[in-house]
Amino acid sequence: MKKVRFGVLGTARIGREKVIPALRKSRYCEIAAIASRSMERAEAVGEALDIPRRFGSYEALLAASDIDAVYIPLPNHLHVDWAIQAMRAGKHVLCEKPLGLDTEDINRLIDATSRYPDIKVMEALMYRHHPQWQDAKRRVDSGEIGQLVTVQSFFSYFNDDPANIRNQAAAGGGGLMDIGCYCVSLSRFLFGTEPTRVCGFMNRDPRFGIDRLFSGMLDFAGVLATFTCATQLAPHQRVNILGTAGRIELLMPFNAPPSVPSQIIVQREDDQDMPVRTITFGVCDQYAIQADQFARAVLDGAPVPIPLTDAWANMHTMEVLLESARLGSWVVC
Prior knowledge:
The protein has 333 residues and is α/β, with parallel strands linked by helices. It folds into two domains: 4-124, 3-Layer(aba) Sandwich (Rossmann fold), CATH 3.40.50; 128-284 and 315-332, Dihydrodipicolinate Reductase, domain 2 (2-Layer Sandwich). The protein has nine helices and 15 strands. The protein is globular, with a radius of gyration of 20 Å.
């Protein structure tokens, strides 16, 4: 079976602990190489993860002729520049979210795709590939919970390490960019359209200058999505999807563990026999599913599951939310 040979640009934790193990589980991917800015670091991580080839620079990995695609887990402000360099080297690109720092950044990447039309590029929004999200979306679209009226999401963790890239404003740190992007994405995904206006509120960390707490409202022409994300709160995540005839609750919507089943709650008041049901999904790794779906697009010459236009629209919504938070008022999208 033909597989896509992946090289990893960088030794970030998400790559080491989530994506590289997932690539090994996947059906259509092979982890072939890793690069760091230092050969010593590349050798250490490559040895620990049993990756056969190690490079002391990103450029050296991109020059390797036996690498088909790269996974980019670099800091946010480096995503677009290295994605374009990878495209120039003939490598397909799976890049961590958010794809850039702003829509201008993503426009540069979209422009580059016109120069390299055979290269696949996708933002790595792993949650959307999980069966629990595919099932939730199907139930919403089928009208099982009636008309979708509101979506509520919450995502938090605690990290006040000044050396952590998530706490560095110039590198694209902050709660909205790091995890609020999921809340914005899932709202757009479920409503199947773009918000008409938004309202944002943020609390900035006085040391780091990043938003440590961000709440937003997204108006989808009269129906609403609300969310809160935070980087200095007790870890928690939950999504509630409410319609006129029922609701869906995702208990572990973002970091669904790859070693135990996932569950969602579906409630319908008109179901007399079982108004509240717990739906269980078998053990799976959402990162491996993401990798395989991207690899199939590469192997088949088909469109990627999440197009760059979706990444642009998500970033645009976040930009407008930040503008609203600065102005203290609703802003039209």
